[in-house]
Write a structure and sequence with these properties.
Bound molecules: pyridoxal-5'-phosphate
Structural class: alpha/beta
Helix content: 25-40%
Low-confidence stretches: none
Mean pLDDT: 95
Length: about 450
């Protein structure tokens, strides 16, 4: 039997027929997860090198699974207005005490990342409204190659692939008031960002005064969907200082980078000066259950009835999150994330040296890496070949792309619990994948030449 097997082909056919079109491109139909491996419905194993864009960072963690089962058996669901959930309150306490958000702070729970960012945006807008500042502070600052979600409010901040993601539906008022700045990229000059802020002009010529800006929303400390682009600390510091002086709310989105991915629960602990007004989390927050959070300055809190939801802070997700945080903290403390980060960097730099005709650059932060390759077709071929390699080796790769028409990236963000031995396997499969695509390209070139 060859991959994709008969069961997968049947489900993929039904998916195409019945399931809404989405961002899925993989032919893997997952059946179960075992540690860092995903086994498909025909029993083909794949090593997970993307964790669903950094959700399953703990793999299939037995303690998280146990917490979910226990919580579900105890109480599948009660909502906010039926009474507080003890685990949700405990989680809010942990997040507000430990996060870098200015204190005192509070937390609001959601079911997804986009809902957490929506809540952050609404907090900013509600605060301005109640202070009579809404008309004065209409503008917002976002970043090129940014991603904040796919719902209507966050679409303005989502620029990682704007033509595909939002442009036809983007609201007129957002268009006028949204300003776009260059993301200060590590190792690159951030002069353009400085010029934009000093001159009050964005990358598209839209003008703004800092006093007119309500909030800024930025992925911290690394952009994910836009092509795995790490922040420059000095650039961030400049941006933070100038916008804080102007009274602009700083919203740090650590949805993809948090929960240990870039080395700490809240994205990055090494910037002691960094105290955002709000911070949004999701993805790995509940170890694979759907949960998000916005942690915010307590004085920004809503008025009664101004905001709520149904599934935010549900008992099962909150129990899972308490365990996921504890286990992730344990990994961070024992140095596992640092070791993984170093290992990924060394291995990826070596891979880039082995395939200079295919790889433009490898870059990342902590255990969040991207391989920028030379073109979109190449990116797609590599991801497909990573899956097909299961037919030769008995184990395939689960890879995920990022970027846009200028920036063709394959994400490398394995579960944080991956062992060195499993990394050896991952990189031998990656090398085979690159080898195979390179050979195919050389053959195609030769044939063209002969013709
Ligand atoms: N923000 C960032 C940085 C993300 O990476 C994502 C999802 O990829 C989101 C927000 C949106 O999260 P969700 O897909 O859970 O709505």
């Amino acid at each position: 039997m060859r991959f994709p097997g008969p069961k997968a082909l049947e489900i993929l056919k039904d998916q195409n027929h019945y399931y809404a079109t989405n961002t899925a491109t993989s032919r893997i139909v997952p059946h179960k997860r075992r540690g860092v491996f995903v086994i498909d419905v025909d029993k083909f194993p794949f090593l997970d090198l993307n964790c669903g864009a950094s959700v399953a960072t703990l793999g299939q963690h037995p303690k998280v699974v146990q917490a979910i089962v226990k919580a579900a058996e105890r109480n599948l669901f009660t909502e906010f207005h039926q009474g507080p959930n003890a685990d949700g309150v405990a989680l809010a306490k942990i997040l507000t005490e430990k996060s870098p958000v200015k204190k005192p702070s509070k937390a609001f729970f959601t079911s997804s990342g986009t809902e957490a960012n929506e809540a952050a945006i609404k907090l900013a807008e509600a605060y301005r409204y109640h202070r009579g500042e809404k008309e004065k502070r209409k503008k917002t600052l976002y970043f090129l190659n940014g991603f904040a979600g796919r719902t209507h409010g966050t679409l303005s901040a989502t620029t990682s692939d704007p033509m595909a993601q939002r442009n036809p539906y983007w609201k007129h008022c957002d268009r006028l008031d949204s300003c776009y700045l260059p993301y200060p990229q590590k190792g690159h000059n951030w002069k353009e960002l400085k010029t934009c802020l000093e001159e009050g002009r964005d990358l598209f010529g839209n003008t703004f005064l800092l006093e007119e800006v309500d909030y800024l929303l930025i992925e911290f400390p690394c952009q994910g969907e836009g092509g795995v682009i790490p922040l420059d600390e000095e650039g961030l510091k400049y941006l933070f200082q100038i916008t804080q002086q102007a009274g602009i709310f700083f919203i740090a989105d650590v949805i993809q980078c948090g929960m240990g991915r870039t080395g700490s629960i809240f994205g990055c602990d090494s910037f002691s000066w960094f105290q955002p007004d709000m911070l949004t989390m999701a993805k790995a927050l509940a170890g694979g259950m759907s949960a998000g959070a916005v942690i915010f300055r307590a004085d920004l809190d809503w008025k009664p009835k101004e905001h709520s939801n149904t599934f935010g802070g549900n008992p099962v997700a909150m129990s899972a999150a308490l365990v996921a945080i504890k286990e992730t903290e344990r990994l961070i403390k024992k140095g596992a994330v640092k070791r993984l980060a170093r290992s990924l960097e060394t291995r990826l730099e070596y891979l880039a040296k082995q395939f200079p005709d295919l790889i433009l650059e490898v870059r990342g932060w902590g255990a969040m890496w991207g391989i920028e390759v030379r073109g979109s077709l190449l990116k797609t071929s590599l991801i497909t070949r990573g899956e097909d390699i299961v037919n030769e080796t008995g184990c395939g790769l689960m890879l995920l792309g990022a970027g846009n028409e200028n920036n063709h990236v394959i994400r490398v963000m394995p579960p944080l619990v991956i062992t060195e031995q499993e990394l050896d396997l991952a990189f031998s499969l990656l090398k085979k994948t690159f080898d195979s695509v390179q050979k195919e390209m050389e053959t195609a070139l030769d044939q063209n030449f002969i013709r």
